[in-house]
Amino acid sequence: MRAALAATALAAAVLAGCATSPTGRSQLMIVSDAQMSQMGITAFNDMRKQGKFVDAPRQRAYATCVANALIAQLPPPWNANQWEVQIVGDDTANAFALPGGRIGVNQGMFKVATNQDQLAVVLGHELAHVVARHGAERVSDNYAAQAAVAAGTIYAGTRGTNAGYAAAALGLGAEVGILLPFSRTQESEADVLGQRYMAQAGFDPRAAVTLWQKMGAQGGSKPPAFLSTHPSSGKRAQVLDQQAQQLLPVWQKARAGNHAPNCRL
Asked: Which residues are part of the catalytic machinery?
């Protein structure tokens, strides 16, 4: 009975939480934008309290310049938000954007993204995660996976199966079969959207290929592609190069108009 109730609750949540991403992909969405914004702001404020942000006015002004040019090209309501940009005192090449209008750029990113176009690749990608509501999708996927594991564990107990073993098996199945493949899909989707935003903002979309090749060269031994949360660097560069060629007219039109960023560190 409890297994049936858990399964029914899960099915109801899934049916009530259907959404569509900016690329037309179906998504499970059982948390609200308001909830995600609060989570993003809370996480950002926690980093502030922990002293993660550093006083680096030149880097912050530079990152803000690139971010603002990209944000102007986002669909509403994200283009109307007041985004805050902070520099993180970390030498690794990383950056993030959070629901609630928060952006963090590691100091190590400036060593890899060596011009405004390359930095726009990174920030466009991270902003695309927010616009496509990937954070909410990941939270929703995790809730659904946890509910599925709970239902399976209860059912296993009623059938005389070791509940702990069933939970472990279902947990692994959920992680490999549901959560990580969606994450790879989200990464590819963010690549597509981010490169589009940067071209519309007047940043050279061809920089995406160079940037991700440089990022790939930073890594050492990597897990198999089918278990990775990111597309393989070779495939990623190939797709980005194809899209860059398609976006060149968009970039050229933006540069000929009023979108010609001049962000310098």
From this structure: 126
